[in-house]
Amino acid sequence: MKLCRFNDQRFGLVIDNSVRDVTHVLERLPAYRYPLPTHDPLIAHLSELRPILLAEAHKAEALAISDVAFLSPIANAGKVVAAPVNYKAHLDEAREDAAIHFHNKVVEIQTIGLFLKATSSIVGPSEGVHIRFADRRNDHEIELAVIIGAKADRVSPQNAMNYVAGYCIGLDMTVRGPQERSLRKSLDHFTVLGPWMVSADEMVHADAADMELCVNGAQRQKANTRDLLIGIPELIAWASSYYTLHPGDVLMTGTPEGVGPVVAGDVITATIAGIGEMKVEVTSLRDETKL
Ligand code: MN
Question: Quick check: 100 pLDDT over 90?
Answer without folding.
Answer: no
